[in-house]
């Protein structure tokens, strides 16, 4: 029987007496059981159809705008791939900072003209984002033909990181699909497959590199080696075929480490400090504080909870959030990698079910970017500080979840079957 078809165990009188001390959790869990059954059950009602149409219309509108006017982030990738195919130096292309392995993966786009390549990558990105959302729903035992599925589709059309990713024609959508697939494989105890999916994401773009720590936490060393071997082997082949491939080590990596701390769009702690003209030592202290706090939260969460797959999703998301905050630079659309965390709302014990998380979700994903930008330069700065604040609030929300008592044992969902 599928997880979405399983009811939660009914309490007998003795169980009720044993959990009397957890009365608030008991009442809440009973309510959330009924609520979740509505979200998870297949739904073909008129409301479901309306939400489905709205979601498709919103995504279609985003796609049309992205294919007509966007594409700025993919232009350096396309130019580098053309240089790679023409036996020129790819790492002299301005703003191309992806690993050599990406040259092999995206080389076919270099055979196309940029307008066609841009439209193609936007379509691939959109399909990957929708696929990732479906996979995230499956992590929690829910399908598209449910209220939660329709709401998720509408959310994809509204979330700012999705809109920004499509408009910029960034490869975030492809990486998100790999992240979601890796989490689903891990939730089903298929660790080698999880390592393979993570390895592919690293070959595209190494933003999720710290997430391989999940494999280390589980002592899945073969899967960990596989996740690192895939980008390493592909990069080695690409470097052998490249002209002046060593520039990746002498030019690109130092840039990635140093970052763009002064960039107005940088939402990392370093970028926020620069936007507020704060001394560098304050940014450094904040980065150390967040890193230490996140490490403590991961440790407490890992030891105190065995509620899967929620624990897996929350810890992976916390690692992503911490990476964005403490890195030398991070962009607003990196919030797209928190889609699994957002969909964890369907679980009654999710860290996203708090007012702190609600504010954080709005700050990271709120669609009202245009309203903030009407404030000119001040609005631009405040908007990007909003993203930084949102990431910090999500760290606090997950930290509060790690301190919260578990639901009574009778109310825990089983993990997904292998």
In terms of DSSP E residues, the strand content is under 5%
Number of strands: 0
Largest sheet: none
Number of domains: 2
Low-confidence stretches: 1-25, 407-418
Query: How much helical structure, as a percent, in the residues?
Result: 55-70%
Shape: globular
Structural class by helix and strand composition: mainly alpha
Radius of gyration: 22 Å
Note the gap between the termini: 12 Å
How many DSSP helices? 20
Helix-strand sequence = HHHHHHHHHHHHHHHHHHHH
Averaged pLDDT: 84
Description:
The chain folds into two domains: 39-258, no CATH class; 260-418, no CATH class. Helix 15 (280-304) runs antiparallel to helix 16 (310-326) and helix 18 (355-365) packs antiparallel against helix 20. The chain has helices at 13-18, 23-40, 46-69, 74-85, 100-106, 114-139, 147-158, 160-168, 172-187, 191-204, 213-217, 221-241, 247-258, 269-275, 280-304, 310-326, 339-343, 355-365, 369-373, 376-403. By secondary structure, it is mostly helical. It is globular.
Which helices and strands occur, and which strands form pairs?
Blueprint: H1 13-18, H2 23-40, H3 46-69, H4 74-85, H5 100-106, H6 114-139, H7 147-158, H8 160-168, H9 172-187, H10 191-204, H11 213-217, H12 221-241, H13 247-258, H14 269-275, H15 280-304, H16 310-326, H17 339-343, H18 355-365, H19 369-373, H20 376-403
Helix pairs in contact: 3-6, 3-7, 3-8, 5-12, 6-7, 6-8, 6-9, 9-10, 10-12, 14-15, 15-16, 15-20, 16-20, 18-20
């Amino acid at each position: 029987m599928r997880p979405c078809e399983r009811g939660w165990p009914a309490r007998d009188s003795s169980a009720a007496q044993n959990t009397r001390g957890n009365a608030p959790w008991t009442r809440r869990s009973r309510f959330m059981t009924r609520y979740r059954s509505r979200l998870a059950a297949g739904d073909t009602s008129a409301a479901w159809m309306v939400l489905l149409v709205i979601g498709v219309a919103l995504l279609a509108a985003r796609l049309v705008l992205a294919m007509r006017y966007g594409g700025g982030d993919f232009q350096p990738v396309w130019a580098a791939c053309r240089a790679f195919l023409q036996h020129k130096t790819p790492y002299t292309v301005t703003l191309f900072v992806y690993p050599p392995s990406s040259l092999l993966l995206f080389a076919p786009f270099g055979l196309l003209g940029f307008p066609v390549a841009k439209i193609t990558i936007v379509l691939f990105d959109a399909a990957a984002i929708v696929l990732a959302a479906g996979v995230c729903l499956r992590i929690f035992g829910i399908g598209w033909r449910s209220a939660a599925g329709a709401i998720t589709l509408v959310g994809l059309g509204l979330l700012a990181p999705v809109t920004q990713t499509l408009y910029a024609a960034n490869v975030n959508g492809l990486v998100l699909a790999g992240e979601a697939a890796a989490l689903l494989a891990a939730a089903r105890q298929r660790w080698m497959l999880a390592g393979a999916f993570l390895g592919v994401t690293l070959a595209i773009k190494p933003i999720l590199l710290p997430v391989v720590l999940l494999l280390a936490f589980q002592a899945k060393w073969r899967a960990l080696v596989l996740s690192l071997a895939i980008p390493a082997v592909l990069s080695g082949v690409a470097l052998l075929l490249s002209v002046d491939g060593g520039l990746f080590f002498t030019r690109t990596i130092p840039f990635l480490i140093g970052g763009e701390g002064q960039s107005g769009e940088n939402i990392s702690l370093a970028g926020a400090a620069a936007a507020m003209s704060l001394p560098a030592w304050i940014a450094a202290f904040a980065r150390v504080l967040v890193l230490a706090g996140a490490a403590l939260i991961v440790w407490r969460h890992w030891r105190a909870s065995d509620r899967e797959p929620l624990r897996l999703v929350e810890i992976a998301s916390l690692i992503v959030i911490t990476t964005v905050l403490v890195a030398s630079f991070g962009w607003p659309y990196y919030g797209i990698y928190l889609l699994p965390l957002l969909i964890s709302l369907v679980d009654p014990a999710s860290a996203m079910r708090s007012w702190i998380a609600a504010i954080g979700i709005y700050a990271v994903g709120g669609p009202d970017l245009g309203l903030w930008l009407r404030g000119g330069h001040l609005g631009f700065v405040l908007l990007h500080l909003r993203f930084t604040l949102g990431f910090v609030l999500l760290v606090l929300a997950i930290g509060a979840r790690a301190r919260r008592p578990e639901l009574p044992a009778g109310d825990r969902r089983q993990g997904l079957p292998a």
